[in-house]
Write the structure tokens for this entry.
Amino acid sequence: MNIQITRTHIRGEYCEGHLTIDGTRICDTLENANSRIPAGLYPITLAKCKQYSRKMPLLNPHPPCDLCKKLPFVCNNTTLPCYCPMLKPGNGVYARLDGSIIVGVYNCLNSIIHPKVVFDALSERIRKSISRGNQVLLTVVDPPPRTQP
């Protein structure tokens, strides 16, 4: 399975984009512009995240989950204790410096809605593809540079 994130805008502290699977647009993405991952090709693996207590789609290479401490309260907008790029639910990117990519439906500037529903569907597609023995690759493409008239 080939997943592509095409970044459309980088404004201030956030970076907007679109996620497509094999050429079909699935959802929108948000990233913190200061901690976003570099453009490139990343294999995705499912591993149990100690903080979320569930399997999460991690971008390799990632640090082992032994470095993360289990936090007493975790919600969609909780940041990870260390830099660990992954696809995850959430609705904003301020103070999110863990390299994560938030998925959902674009609502307005720096905001997406329905993150849990979109993430669960995307995570299930990734899980099924991996269980069938397929490799899941994520390609991140930066927006074209702006030209001055």
About this structure: Residues 2-141 form one domain.
